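User: Hey, quick favor. My workstation is busy. Could you predict this chain's structure for me?
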Amino acid sequence: MSVPSEVAIVYDCGSTNLRVLAISPSGEVVAQRKESNSTKPQPGGRPEWRIWDLDEIWNKLCKLTRGILSDIKGRYRPLGVIATTWGADGVFVDGRGNPTYPAISWQDPRTGEVMAKVRDLVDPWEVFKITGYQLLPFNTIFKWIWIRENAPEAIRRAKAFLMIPNYISYRLTGEFHIEPTDASTTMAIDQVKRDWSEKMLSIAGLDESIFPEWREPGDYAGFVTEEASRQTGLRKGLPVIVGGHDTQFAILAAGAERDEAVLSSGTWEILSFRSERYVVSRKAYEHGVLIELDVERGRWNPQFLMPASLVLEWLGRLAYRDVQRRYELMVEEASRIPAGSNDVLFLPSFFPGSGPTGRYGVPGVILGLTLSATRAHLYRAALEGLSYQLRLALELLEKSFDLRFSGIRVVGGGSRNELWNGIRASVTGRRILVSRFVEATALGASLAAFKAVGLFKTFDEAVKSLDYRLRAFEPDEEEMRSYQKAYERYLEAYELVSKLYR
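Assistant: No problem, here it is.
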């Protein structure tokens, strides 16, 4: 009888999908299942308020886990389970883990007014120096303030505040903890200390005692309880490993060299790199850079957060509705359009105020339309506009931190679009590298789990054990000349259009 191979069970939770994957030490996804995820209106709240139904999320994860265990039964043996999720969101819970107030989503608009008040209380530049974060309405600290001002009883009754991955870990183990990668999205972390900032907590009106003990990614969070075993099918006593923010695990798993940036490309794109120093420059602040804590101590992840495939999905719904093989057809048609899209220019800033063009405050814009423009022109122009956005972000990161990147490692769903990768290369003038590993977030989390159970001694050893089988997309010189002119028009367009929205 053959001995079952070993896998990590990874809960990879996003704002639109919940996935459970079984991943081997070599990085192979041997099984995966997914369910949709979405916010809900808050009962008794205003129509625009959005929350997460944590019981629904947990029940879906339990169902997915039972399915995965059925898929791998007899072939693979779980060594541990780990959860990674989106950032910024969390929940106050009582001593039994019951939420004392609903988990407010990053998509909820109610914190906008809170942010404006905080801006009057503290210099945003001072906030950036401490926390590495810009003032963004979805930052966790603004939710704390809103709850304190509007539902103070929820905080008085609370035993702890948990970020979403920590809450999932609690449901598995019955133990509270908090970890630094997700906590660094709160705008309340002292980046140098890798601990809470007294100044920011005082602004929030919270005491440090509301937070449970720190655990590092790759530490043990606890073990699967009898109740969690009954619900998920996981073995009682299975190690539960400390997970965290999805961005950090994707950056880790990319395996980038020291002179390479990492682009995690999905619904949103995050351009980042792993820094061994915490550098806060005025340039970085003014350019809109965010800095989050890396999976490892002594490292940081300066980054830009930008709209990405959500723009392409929007265009697909409008222009390619009810067509077979939508994705393939979009790429096929756009491949026949020349570089520059016959002067159709797409400004993909669907979330004004975010990303490298955030300072312009411009929403999405399409310029250069004529009667000869087709949906293929629009799709290619969208790919090019997203690539101009990437180039701007890359240049601003280099200026902010006095760096020069030789190439960009692209991970995530957006790495599978070969047309897009070629455009990225010619627009940025840098080599674009993709690997056989698409699921970088889940892969990075699995490496943390395998490190925790002793298969690897360090994160570096875990990353170096992987066979990436890299594929390179090189810049095309002729396209580079066309895109240089188009990029200059792109920058000029933001300057001009911003005047209409001031």
